[in-house]
Amino acid sequence: MNHSSNMATLRLFLGAVLSLLLILSAAAQDKPAAPAVYAITHAKLITLAGSPIDDGTVVIKEGKIAAIGAEVGVPAGAQVIDAKGLQVYPGLFDPITQMGLSEIGAVSATVDTSETGPINPDVVAATAVFPSSEHIPVTRASGITEVLAVPGSGGFDSFGGRGLLAGQASAIHMAGWTIDEMQIKRSVAMVINWPTINTQSFDFTTFSRKQKPFSEAKADYEKQVNQLTEVLESARHYAQAMGHGGPSDFERDVKLESLVPVVRGQLPVLVFADRARDIRNAVEYCDKHKLHMILAGGEEAYKVKDLLRSKDVPVILRPVLTDVGEDDTPYDRLMTQPAELVAAGVKIAFGSFDNSFARRLGQNAANAIAHGLSPEDGLKAVTLYPAQIFGLSDQLGTLQVGKTANIIVTNGDPLEITTDVKYLFIRGELTSLENRQHRLYEKYLNRPKSEACQCAVPEMPNKLKDGPKPSGLLSNTKPN
Amino acid sequence: MRVHSMFRVSLCAAVLIGAVSLRAPAAPPPPDAPPVILIQNATVLTVTKGTIEHGSVLIKDGKIAEVGAGVKAPSGAQVIDGTGMFVTPGIIDCHSHIAVDGSVNEGSISVSSIANIAEVLDSDDISIYRDLAGGVTTANVLHGSANSIGGQTIVIKLRWGQPAAKLPFEGAMPGIKFALGENPKRSNFSIPGREKRYPASRMGVEETIRAAFTEARDYKNAWDAYNKKVAAGEKNLIPPRRDLRLDPLVEVLEGKRYVHSHCYREDEILMLLRVAKEFGFKVRTLQHVLEGYKVADEIAAAGTGASTFSDWWAYKVEAYDAIPYNAAIMTRRGVLVSINSDDAEEATHLNQEAAKTMHYGGLTHDEALKLVTINPAIQLGIDKRVGSIEVGKDADLVIYNHDPLSAYAVVQKTLIDGRVYFDRQKDIAARADLEKEKKALLEKEKKSSKKDDKKDADAKKPSDKPAEKKPDATKPEEKKKPEDMPMMPSADAATNMSSVTGGAR
Prior knowledge:
Structural class of chain B: alpha/beta
Distance between the termini of chain A: 28 Å
CATH architecture of the largest domain in chain A: Alpha-Beta Barrel
Strand content of chain B: 15-25%
Shape of chain A: globular
Helix content of chain A: 25-40%
Radius of gyration of chain A: 26 Å
Shape of chain B: globular
Oligomer: heterodimer
């Protein structure tokens, strides 16, 4: 993309595209689209609610799964997809992303992932999700049908300043003309970035690494925890006041108001923590303050697995394809952890914690399976389990009658790298697998052969006569 | 002038003691003759000579001695049962920053050719072992991308446990890193209070390279003239002034040093190819080259290799047109392509990253595997020694429990020069003992620090040191080091804070 292109031309071009889109959408609006009825037939159905059905049919009607099974008939007028040789799964669910909140990591103008300042419980991801983000169709093509857009969750090339109370995560479908169409649930969790005792930091003004004594780092940590406690205490009083009368009785405070469902235990807190000590502190804190906790990150969750199980804290694990922390940690520690947590009775799900790498969600689950997680748990950890953890399993996560029809039809294991998604349904609509990357592929695959090439280089002018001759010695072949 | 410190940034003593004695699960092989090994009854993916079901590979003197279906074990040979296993050549990573002590960027100047990665190799870097555990046997260790013309680079073998002097790939052509686009023009980078560095545009990047090679050409001519006079027997000549910055560029002009250039956009790719033509040198590889698919014909015509990512995109503007079909299009258009990591963690699953080209663009199984074996070997000029399973080549091999072009494949053993440098079973078996040893060391450290504190207290005033010496407190917060800031994948990215270290991608 030529970013230095003439702005006027660009505007003209965009204008033309917009008018075309308007005409097209107007045409589409002429006859309001009746929700189509689909029947996927002769497929292997992996419902995740009972054993797979080898040759079955799924009927999709009004956005939902209307019927599913081996003996299901095709309704009259249904669009039939013959899926012989193919498999049907619930769409994948990525529970931690910055989907729609960030377009190009390095360009801050395109990034809306976190607010400034530590206390922002009132901000909601759905507000800033850009429905036209190119990341949405790109990610969708890998079979991901719904995600959580999570404020303050970092992401690739994201640094610092994620906030203590970072805002509310929103569950969204990976398709829709507007956020209203995309939204599954506007607020599914309150994000807390658990403070950590950090003895090292980087100082931009002096451009150097700074080391502080443990005692000082601990004091900083405690200050942040106290800040959190203070806000939550205020929210508790606020909730009581609200319970006793209308807003006329007291001054409205939107930040505290947004925390009322949290202190009432109605909205879970999604707590980001990786080190064992931080996780332990967070779990004990949430237990003491009666917060419904979901752990995010959990690199060292295995060290506190019994605590997590006993307090019933589920974990959204960051990708197993992440650098292992310390030098003396086993190289496959993150790969083997999922199996270990499941064996200990901890509920897990996998998240990408990213945007442009969200499509690696399945790959991560597969790597965990290769290191001991059962294939069933691996698949459920990117479908049913995240839905359960965020209270959405009545709508999503399995193929069952009445659930939202977020469905993928594949030619194999959806977690395997080489598998193709053949059809994808979101809210019962057959949804395009096309995207920007595929369009660029088609365009340049079909570029006419370049005739005038200015770049061919003559043979090396200096053939080596004497001295060391490393070039030819080891190579049989020139690059071309 | 040494631009890199030869000394390691000191870590906390306790951690250092722990790390050095604990982190090497595989004992370094003894320096005696490599054993005779027969890998038996495996699926052998030779890469250049097809696939042999129920095949065997015989290893002698560090080399591949026989490959085939009916190879018999010589007496005294160590036999590895490969039933159900897959054997491939060692993975070759054409863009790595492992085993480098400290920053990979000398970012203060725009032509940092004086800096040399070979001088700062760190054989203790745990990434060597972890990449080995991911099947990597050879890596092209590059300088960062902060400069239009960056530092000198070196190809290494991942001989974990050997001293730094044993890491370099013997006889492999040295290289030099170039970089185009956002990183050398510092688009996503600034130090408060410091003036902008030239170049600040893609135009300036071209002129920086052109100016440097103009100088290098003059410098070379001066030396050539001098050497000619010396050869003719002239006496009392004054040699031209030696310039350590230009020496590596003269080597490029003479074909003695490969150019590995970081690049993203189509226009800058063609720019570099034109400048190279102007000065009569070849660009050996274009690195990242995320828009290579747009100018694949031109790259092919220039005889230049392309080494790219599998599916990274959108982390900066010049990566917005990146597509996972890049490798496939370039391959179809006749470019020699490899898939690289640029990141210690990414390198541990390059086999999986190569597999993505089967999904995106429909490369065959053979073509995909070549992207991380024989193709990077050719790009690095070492394909006579490595990159495929052929008689006479180095016995650099990986044994997987599954087809390596899958997310379910786990490396069981990695061999270099016929020695087992990584063995998954041994690694797992050693863990309990290592854990015990770690605990003992920490206890010892706790006791000795208590004693020290007591001594301090006895001697003078009380201090608050006990709190600081808790083992937890001394854990390095590695995620907070600027080099490691991005959580996934971890190494130094090109933007914002990571660019403090100059940026690599």
